[in-house]
Design a protein that fits this description.
This protein is mainly α. The chain has helices spanning about 1-40, 45-50, 55-85, 85-100, 110-130, 135-140, 140-180, 185-200, 205-215, 220-245, 250-255, 255-265, 275-280, 280-300, 320-340, 345-350. The two termini are about 15 Å apart.
């Protein structure tokens, strides 16, 4: 029994790492193109210039659409690929696509949903491979039977089983944020910041960002500064942890240090996703640091009039030095926690 559980754990960890390694180039390419679009066209370019009307807008939307379209399905597809080989790619990508809430029904589950979809898809495909079929029909398994049945099953599961409860949770969290808005600023900052870091582009992140946008439209620019600080903290925390505790990370992990620093500067939390996917215990660490950064933003009265752009749009902040301080403190808090739960790579391999 213990050997079976150990084998399953190794299979799942290998699947997650495979999915992340294939997803990462899409995150890097999309994120940096978004940042370049903001740098060239200004922080309000998504609202003031129609897509593709000038060079900066084209660069921005290539990055934006590329990131939102490919990242999550690729993760789901290659998690399934690691478990079920090539037949798993199609089914896993369909499951990952469903995690993006393609119909806007509030059922999105982001990268966490894609991980679940990819794992389910992988084992589903392995099960379909064992269907007792006549030899004449077995040749249809990889091209017809597995894609049709597998894609239908995983999409229905993502829509009816995983999506509905998650959508209800998101609605509840939205109501909670609106209630906290008139209460204690520190509590609001902690909750708002932690939600930004929880799933890094997923539904909770979108709820908290939507809350900041709604406040911004009403003339309250403090929540947007929290969205900035909380989103920029996780990638910088990972960069700090990998620099300070080199032996806690593989050489492959450490190659992402420049990307994590760029992710912080550009407000692209997704650069921390590969590290969160490799060890889900890091997510609470990110939430703690982002929560601290958010509470500081609310307490210090920092405002941000840009909806995105990271340090490229500091000119839109009333207290840029204070904002940088919030990001630094939050990053250090998260980095300390990430290092506290870690251990040398050699020790992990031995175990």
């Amino acid at each position: 029994m213990n050997d079976t559980l150990k084998d399953m754990k190794e299979t799942l960890l290998g699947a997650i790492q495979t999915g992340v390694s294939y997803m990462l180039p899409f995150v890097v390419a999309g994120g940096i193109l978004i940042a370049l679009g903001f740098a060239l066209g200004g922080y309000d370019i998504p609202n003031t210039v129609e897509p593709g009307r000038n060079f900066a807008s084209t660069i921005f939307w290539i990055g934006k659409i590329g990131l939102s379209t490919f990242m999550v399905p690729i993760l789901g597809g290659y998690v399934a690929f690691s478990i079920a080989d090539k037949p798993g790619i199609c089914v896993g990508m369909f499951g990952g696509w469903m995690a993006t809430d393609p119909w806007g029904m509030g059922y999105g589950s982001g990268f966490l949903g894609a991980l679940i979809a990819g794992i389910i898809a992988g084992y589903l495909v392995n099960g379909l491979k064992k269907l007792p079929l006549p030899n004449a029909l077995r040749s249809l398994l990889p091209t017809l039977i597995i894609p049709v049945i597998g894609c239908a099953v995983i999409c229905l599961l993502m829509h009816y089983v995983i999506g509905i409860p998650l959508g209800s949770m998101v609605t509840s969290l939205t109501n909670m944020l609106n209630t906290l808005g008139s209460g204690n600023l520190i509590i609001l900052g902690l909750v708002h910041g932690a939600m930004i870091a929880f799933d890094m582009g997923g539904p909770l992140n979108k709820v908290s960002y939507a809350f900041a946008i709604a406040c911004m439209e009403a003339g309250n620019y403090v929540p947007m500064s929290t969205a900035f600080a909380a989103a920029m903290t996780p990638p910088m925390a990972m960069a700090i942890a990998m620099i300070v505790k080199k032996n806690y990370f593989t050489p492959e992990d450490r190659t992402s240090i420049p990307g994590c620093i760029a992710g912080c500067l550009c407000m692209i939390t997704e650069f921390a996703i590969p590290h969160a996917a490799k060890d889900l215990r890091r997510i609470p660490c990110f939430m703690a640091g982002s929560g601290v950064a958010g509470a500081m933003c609310y307490t210090l009265g920092i405002t941000m009039k840009a909806p995105h752009g990271g340090l490229f749009v500091l000119f839109a902040c009333n207290k840029p030095i204070h904002l940088i301080l919030c990001i630094a403190v939050g990053s250090i808090v998260s980095a300390i926690l990430v290092m506290a739960i870690g251990k040398p790579v050699e020790q992990e391999i031995a175990e």
